[in-house]
Each structure stands twice: as structure tokens, then as C-alpha cells.
Amino acid sequence: MCGIVGYVGSKQAYPILMKGLYRLEYRGYDSAGIALVDGDLKLYKTKGKVSDLEHFVHDKDVTGTIGIAHTRWATHGEPNNINAHPHYSQTHNLALIHNGIIENYGPIKEELQKRGYKFISDTDTEVIIHLIEDIKVNEKVTLDEAVRIALNQIIGAYAIVVISKEDPDMLVAARKGSPLVVGIGKNEFFIASDASPIVEYTQDVVYLNDEEIVTVRRGHKIKIKTITNKDKTPYIQKLELNLSALEKGGFEHFMLKEIFEQSRSIQDSMRGRLNAKEGTVKLGGILDYEQKMANAKRIIIVACGTSWHAGLVGEYLFEDLARIPVEVEYASEFRYRNPVINEDDIVIAISQSGETADTLAAIEMAKMKGATIIGICNVVGSSIPRATHAGSYTHAGPEIGVASTKAFTAQVTILTLMALRIAQMKGTIEKSRFHRLLNELEAIPEKVKETLAVDKQVKELARIFTYTRNFLYLGRGYNFPVALEGALKLKEISYIHAEGYPAAEMKHGPIALIDREMPVVVIATNKGTYDKVLSNIQEVKARKGKIIAIVTKGDKDVKKLADYIIEVPETEEMLVPLLATIPLQLLSYHIAVMRDCNVDQPRNLAKSVTVE
Which bin fits 20, alpha (ψ -120 to 50), beta or left (φ > 0)? Predict the structure, then answer.
């Protein structure tokens, strides 16, 4: 983990690889490196940013029309120059880059050390390249065959690309549990961990499946085989990605751009699926499984991080509208329990990237127990859509900022559409309410635009709380997951400690924290448990806490109590999360900027968590 780029063709590789690394910076990383072949195999790497690597090589020889490059997010071994990728083989004839974790690297390393191999890094990755070279030399096989044999001895997750000084026209790559995509140009090939480094060069791509090995050679066609040596026919797809989506578009940060894109991303997630005038909801991706979902005795939602918070909103939606019991599970815990899963259960797996390792593992376990798996994902061609029985893409577009914003509201939009459709099929919703909700959902994109108008107000509010050390976020009902998500955003990008709680739970412990130094963010819109939330606000005020309230436009009662208010448009209770979350995203963003934090690439975080 994190970013992979490879190139072979007629152009100079260095500028292509470096541009690719910059495109992959959003994934989060702590070191970077590059290897090029031009007679010799040249390898340069350094701790720090891609710009540090660029500065490091400014006076080095970077010629060559074939190369590999990598940004690393540390797993085995601290971030430093030695542990950075690529890694040489013992003879320096081969180099390799790797995303993932090799679980059995210890015994393999011990065996290779007995054979005389010297290890200079603390990484599990170095084991792979030494093993490949050992097989290549001793079994006298080609590089691609040596890779195949080596991978049969490896346990764990990987996406690897290997380059050879002895064969300067070829790259060999493979994946298991970590994404790889191959771009096919005119007499050139690109390999990357996602499509962002490829999009400006070609629209023709092949997404590798688990345990597949791809060989790309200058002047030849792409070849794919499995680690069991079965040939596969490459399935070439058109890339659904626009280059402009990878640029900031005049915004200071990707995160701010993506917050402001939410009117469009919600609209795109509903486009062709919702028709309020005709009173229809149609999700083509789950059409063949709608009846099975309607008949389900239970829905289990598995996800991590922000997607888990979207799943919590989904729990309220499905239980409220479709009257189906729902359990929302952290995928990282679910996979290690021995959960009771029945064949008539529906498991909904939610992931922005479609590559979340824990969620993928939870899917595989649930499939083995006979459950039907429905995916909600943003990235076309990623692993989760291919691992599930059916599902829906969110169509939020590329999300570059590590802290998820528009993906959250897009996921909630899809969950709302699913719940409405299943409720309609089951007859658990009155026709009048169904049509009212469709009309209101169709109006949400415009109300999001209206909500975004609070940006300047939130920016001024952020100045007051820039140096606050702790925050408490409170919400009830549909707004409880919004409180959790608001607290997570603040933690992720500003490094301020924040906790989200159900408002009624405050008196069961967290109320001890409240004093005049504790800002409390309360989602207090005028639906559901409004009167109860008013009481919770009074409890905070009695203890001198500072109240920041998210209220419905025109509210008078909360305004009398709160120190600061932020208004959002009126909407149906179950749609409030689509609006109320936006001021919280803006608050986190502006506080982080004022604290001089790296908003798009927060420390220690990675966009796509492809390892445990």
C-alpha cells in the first residue's frame, strides 16, 4: 500500500512515472521511489513526498523507456530511504514494487538467508524479489514464470510489478487482494494501482483479477495467466474517468472541491434511477435480486470508517421504510467473529474504493455461508463489485481527498433509493408517503446548493475554534450517524480529538467532560426527537458548554439556547443526513486549513485501505 505506476513504450518513462506518482498522492504515503532501465537498472528512492524524490533525482540519469515507480505507506519497517520501494534483487538485475502484506515472509526470509541472500530493509517486500530471483536463476526459467512460481509460495495480499535489466522490454505484474489496472496505448503499456495515472494516455484498460499475472512487452500483445498457469483472455474495457475530475478546478484543496461537488454527485447517483413524476425507483444493478432483498429476514451491512456511518443511516432507512431488521457491522470485526449468517440473509457491503481489505474478507466469508451480497461502491472495475452478486455504483466521481465527503452522501443516496424500492415492493410504505419522499429526494441537490451557502459563515466560526483540543458531537435518530461522521472528519484532517454520541447517552458518562472549554456540536433539526434534543442542549448549557447547533432554517427554540447556529433547508427526517453533514464537513475543513494541516493528505492515513 499505496501507489503503483509502470510504463513500457517508446516515450521516456520518467516524466510519465512522476506524473503518475503525483496523481496517486491522494492515496496517502510516506516515501517514494523509481526504477528505470536504460542499459543499466537505475533505482532512486527517498523518504518523504514525490517532490522530495523529484528533487533527489534532479542531477541523476533518468533516461529509459521502461520503468516502475511507487509511493509507500509503511507497514513493515519505518518510513525511511532503505524501506522505500522499489527494492533490488541481490544481483541488482531485478527490481520490484509492492502493495499489500506478505503474511509468511518470515519463514521465506529465513530460508533465503540460509541460501546466502542478504536483506538490507525491514520490509516483507524485499523477500518477494529475492525469492523471484532465486527461482529464476536456480530453475532457469523466464521472469514471468519465476514470478508465477514465487507467488504460489506466498501467502497474503499483493499487487506487484517487476522490472529486469536483462529483459528491458518487459514488465511483469500480478495481484491478489490489492488492485492493479493495465492501460493499453499505441505500442505502449501502463500499469497502475488505479486509473488516475493512466487516464490522460489511453481509455483502454484491463482490470486484473485476483491471482492473475500480466506480462506486457514492447511490440507484443498483453498476456494474462493465473498463478496456476491457465491462460486468460484479456477483457479490455473503456475507462470511465474524466481527466478534469482529477484536477482541483480552482479550489484550494480537493476536499473543498469535493464538498462543493455534492449537489452534482447526489444528482448523478439518482440519475436514471429516480423518477418522482412517474413515481418509480429503478436500480438496474440489483434488479435480479430485488425480490430476494424484499424476502430477506435480515440485512447485514458491512463497512469501515465513513462507509460504516453511511451504513448506520441505512439501518434506519431499511427498518423504517421496508421493516427489515438490520445489523451494521465493522467489517474488520465481522470477519474475525463467528457470526450467524443464513442463506436468506442479505449482506450489503459499502466501500468508496471497492478495495477495502476488511470488507472484501467479510464478503468472502458471507458468500461461503450462502448469503447474497449486494455492493455499494464508487470505483468502476474495483474488487468489491466483482466479488458481490449484484449492486449499485454511486457515480460520485473520483474522490481524491483522503477524508471522504461526497462518497458519504452518495452512499446514503443509494441506500435511500434501495430502501424506498424494497418498501414499495413489500407494501410497507403508504403511496402518499412514498411519492412525497421521491419528490423531496429529487429536490435534495438544489437544497445541497442552498446548504453550501453557509461556507463563509462556517469559515468565520472555524476561526473561533482553531485551537480547541476536544469536540463533542451529538445527534439522535437519523442524526446520530451524522454526529459520528462529523467527529470523524474533524479527527482525520485537523488532528483534534472529537467524539460522536447519541445525544441521550451524553448523560451516561460524557457529560463529565463538559465545561466552558468544551464545544458541543448538536444536530438539532426540527424533525423526530427535536424536543428531546432541546433538553440535551439545556443540559450542556447548564454546565457552561459551548453549543454549535445545526438547525432547520427558521428555527427559533434552539437559537435561544445555542451559542452559534448553522441553518440547513427543511426536508424529510430521513433525508436530513444529506444536508446536515455538509456544514460539519466545512467546519472540519476550515479548522484544518487554519491549523495548517495537510487537508488532502492527512498524516498516517491512506485513501484505499488494502491491508489489515
Answer: alpha
What confidence category does residue 458 fall into, taking pLDDT thresholds of 50, 70 and 90?
A: very high
The closest of 469, 500, 495, 466 to 484, measured between CA atoms, is 500
pLDDT tops 70 at residue 607: no
**501502463: which residue's cell?**
190
Burial (CB count <10 Å: 0-12, 13-18, 19+), residue 15: exposed
Confidence of residue 13 (pLDDT cuts 50, 70, 90): very high
Residue with cell 499505496: 2
CA-CA-CA-CA dihedral for 4, 10, 14, 20, to nearest 10:
-40
Indicate if the alpha-carbon torsion angle 248, 254, 256, 259 is positive or negative.
positive
Instruction: Look up 2 and say whether it is catalytic.
Output: yes
Beta-carbon contacts of residue 222 (< 8 Å; ≥ 6 apart): 182, 184, 189, 206, 214, 215, 216, 234
* 356 three-class SS: coil
Nearest one of 519, 503, 540 to 470, comparing CA atoms: 519
How far is the C-alpha of 397 from the C-alpha of 249, rounded, in Å?
14
Longest dimension (CA), the chain: 81
Mean pLDDT of 50-69: 92
- Asked if residues 237 and 207 have their Cβ atoms less than 8 Å apart, the reply is yes
CA distance 349 to 360: 8
Q: For cell 506480462, what's the residue?
A: 215
- The secondary element (H helix, E strand) that includes residue 475 is strand 470-475
Of 2, 304, 377, 597, which is the active-site residue? 2
Per-residue pLDDT tens over the stretch 156-175: 888 999 999 999 999 999 99
Among candidates 541, 544, 509, which has minimal Cα distance to 524? Answer: 541
Q: Which domains does the chain have, with CATH numbers?
A: 2-244 (3.60.20.10), 248-451 (3.40.50.10490), 453-612 (3.40.50.10490)
**Rounded to an integer, what distance in angstroms lies between the CA atom of residue 610 and that of residue 612?**
7
Q: Which residue in 45, 47, 257, 607 is the catalytic one?
A: 607
Cα angle value 173/174/179 (rounded, 5°): 105
Q: Partners of 171 in the beta sheet?
A: 163, 216
Whether residue 179 is preceded by a cis peptide bond, meaning omega within 30 degrees of 0, is no
The pTM (predicted TM-score) of the whole model is 0.76
- Single-letter amino acid, residue 434: F
SS3 helix, strand, coil % of the chain, rounded to 5?
40, 25, 35
Contact by Cβ (8 Å): 475, 503: yes
